[in-house]
Design a protein that fits this description.
With 538 residues, the protein is mainly beta. Helix content is 7%, strand content 33%. The chain has 2 domains: 94 residues, no CATH class; 406 residues, YVTN repeat-like/Quinoprotein amine dehydrogenase (Methylamine Dehydrogenase, Chain H, 7 Propeller), CATH 2.130.10. The protein is globular.
Length: 538
């Protein structure tokens, strides 16, 4: 696995921002979705019309100026953030002075949101990577590949029947598949990996996208990594080698993670188009059109696929055909992954509520007031859900009783949560925009430990055995002891990280906004030992 490196071409930074804003007024209702045949490409649409009260949590580069207001509308607070990111209006030349003033204001707001907090723990040297040898985020080992945009038909590898083993010989989490086919690993959004990871991670390969960056999280199924870039291509990449299998170029850009099931890959783009692609060759099986941008990953339940949109709808489609089964209309945008619990879909929305929706009929089955908008995914364990909001609060919710059990707020710097939690029977782990990762007691919400990074933590943590992996906007991927919060491993990725780790088959995959997708795994010796152990048990 230590072959020569392939030259990496320079790429432009992502043009699609990691932003968050919600509208609470003048909501445009969505028309029913429709199934479309290829190669029709719909016109560009605005995600939502924004007027009245706005809830804005965007960086300066996130802001699209309203067409009828120009830059002065930006200065006076009359802005459109829900607009499709592919159709930004031009700014009149005469308005540049106002633009400068507006950007100064926004930069001031951003500075407040990113209050510098010195790390409480010094960054430790990586256990398996010499940080001095990889200044741009590349280690001295592994391979680098550049993506290409044409279709390359290739049959997917057949899934292995060998059991997944930890290096110590322990089995994976009972009753859970070892892949990472969904955004948080499973339908409940727990963020727990069933696969093992080696004690020391080594960089296996780096895939370089030629255009936009990776803000979406990868999914992994049947030995293949599926992920889209912010400028359009959606890739299938071999997990073992890092080589591209195919690229689908119909989409307008992807902020949402995908889902993989039964030979299909499901993903939505920033123009509201939802695709079902064949895993084997990337050819579309069907396409469905929502009315607005899709930011959250889909979930798969029985023979159906679920996803939300900025048009405020939760859609339920037939998995094989794309036929609309039902549509649940909420008052505002839905940006999260819909988790599944006890015959219900759970979505937390920009209306500041956790919605419970009957999976069979699409009818409301209750709601819980969250006191603020959110794009976070509710993580479910047993009868409890855990979710943070833009109002700087993190909640534990009893689902049967429809009530809040406890509330947590960042004790030192009141900042919002855009990280979705990982949950175990003992603790809840979540990142915060105050640059910290928190471990909270699952019963009381008390802080067990906190770890300070050098950037906002919008990445969602993943539990792998006794370790916790999470990215930060400081450009690092951290491996923490999940019992103490101490750093046990870290790697400089060479670009901001808002995506989350995906873990499968002894490998961890994560991308950055500079368009680099990294895969970490065992060394050749460890890999050979695990293959031998798996073979002995067959």
């Amino acid at each position: 696995m230590h072959s020569e490196e392939v030259a990496v071409s320079a790429t432009a930074p992502s043009m699609l921002p990691n932003s968050f804003s919600c509208s609470n007024g003048d909501k445009r209702m969505a028309r029913p979705g429709s199934i479309s045949s290829f190669p029709q490409v719909p016109g560009q649409r605005k995600a939502t019309g924004l007027a009245g009260r706005l809830c804005i949590f965007a960086k300066p580069r996130d802001i699209n100026v309203a067409e009828n207001q120009g830059v002065w509308g930006l200065y006076h607070g009359q802005i459109s953030i829900g607009q499709s990111r592919r159709s930004r209006p031009a700014i009149p030349n005469a308005a540049w002075l106002g633009l400068i003033g507006a950007l100064v204001c926004c930069l001031g707001c951003q500075a407040d949101d990113s209050e510098a907090i010195p790390p409480e723990q010094p960054a430790q040297a990586a256990l398996s990577v010499d940080a001095s040898s990889n200044p741009p985020g590349l280690s001295s080992e592994g391979k680098t590949y550049s993506g290409i945009r044409k279709q390359i038909p290739c049959s997917a590898d057949a899934p292995s029947n060998a059991p997944v083993l930890y290096p110590e010989g322990k089995t994976a989490v009972p009753g859970r598949q070892a892949g990472w086919p969904l955004w948080r690993g499973d339908r409940a959004g727990t963020g727990q990996a069933a696969s093992w990871l080696p004690e020391k991670l080594h960089r296996q390969w780096t895939f370089q996208a030629p255009g936009g960056g990776f803000e979406a999280t990868a999914v992994i199924a049947d030995g293949c990594v599926y992920i889209g870039t912010t400028d359009g291509p959606f890739y299938a990449i071999d997990l073992r080698t890092g080589r591209q299998r195919w690229a689908f170029t119909e989409g307008a850009g992807y902020l949402a993670p995908a889902a993989a099931a039964d030979g299909l890959v499901f993903v939505g783009d920033v123009q509201g188009r939802f695709f079902a692609l064949r895993q084997a060759d990337g050819q579309p099986a069907w396409r469905f059109e929502a009315e607005a941008e899709i930011d959250g990953g889909p979930n798969v339940y029985e023979d159906r696929v679920l996803f939300g949109s900025q048009d405020g709808c939760l859609y339920c489609l037939q998995r094989d055909t794309g036929r609309l089964v039902w549509k649940y209309q909420s008052p505002d945008q839905i940006r999260c992954f819909p988790t599944v619990w006890n015959g219900l879909a759970l979505v937390a929305g920009c209306d500041g509520r956790l919605h419970l929706v009957d999976l069979q009929k699409g009818q409301p089955a209750g709601e819980v007031e969250l006191k603020g908008p959110t794009g976070c995914t509710p993580a479910v364990l047993e009868e409890r859900a855990f979710v943070g909001t833009e109002s700087r609060q993190f909640f534990a919710i009893h689902l049967r009783e429809r009530k809040i059990l406890w509330t947590f707020e960042s004790p030192k710097s009141k900042q919002s949560f855009r990280s979705s939690a990982a949950v175990t029977p003992e603790a809840v782990y979540v990142g915060c925009r105050d640059r910290r990762v928190y471990a909270l007691d699952i019963k009381t919400g008390q802080v067990l430990w906190q770890f300070a990074t050098r950037g906002q933590v919008d990445s969602s943590p993943v539990v792998v055995g006794d370790r916790l992996f999470v990215g930060s906007e400081d450009g690092r991927l951290y491996g923490l002891d999940r019992r103490t919060g101490q750093v046990v491993w870290q790697f400089e990725l060479g670009g901001q990280v808002s995506a989350s780790p995906a873990v499968a088959d002894g490998h961890l995959v994560i991308g950055n906004t500079a368009g680099q997708l990294y895969c970490f795994g065992p060394s050749d010796r460890t890999d050979a030992s695990n293959r031998s152990a798996a073979s002995d048990q067959q």
